[in-house]
Amino acid sequence: MPSLWVDADACPRVAREIIVRAAERTATPTWFVANHTIPLPPSKWVRALSVSHGFDAADNEIVARLAAGDLLITSDLPLAMEAIDKGAAVMTTRGEMLDRSNIRARVQMRDFMETLRASGEHTGGPKGYADTDRREFANALDRWLAKNA
Description:
The chain is an alpha/beta fold.
């Protein structure tokens, strides 16, 4: 059975709640990995893993433990690329699946926007997490679990 891995440092609380409910409903082993304590309800299926506060410590722990066929939930594009290279599925907290066909373009766009910001251009940040994002994520996670768990 595949496991769910969550890059929990930047995971919105509402997405975390959706993941916990889905893990319980489908009896899917789920790990929330962060460099701080993540509040989670008691569960047979859901666990928190706190790592050191070093740069990319949570990402490195996820990559070390992730297996082919698992699902990683993250918006961290370099982490997503490493997970895809290991054969894992990757989904953002907005329900978008990342794979070999779209990850490189997303990383290139992120790098381009970073260059613009470094030159003083105001590019704005990510949009807020709306009800439509919550629904898209919940539906995408349910579809993945129905197909893979």
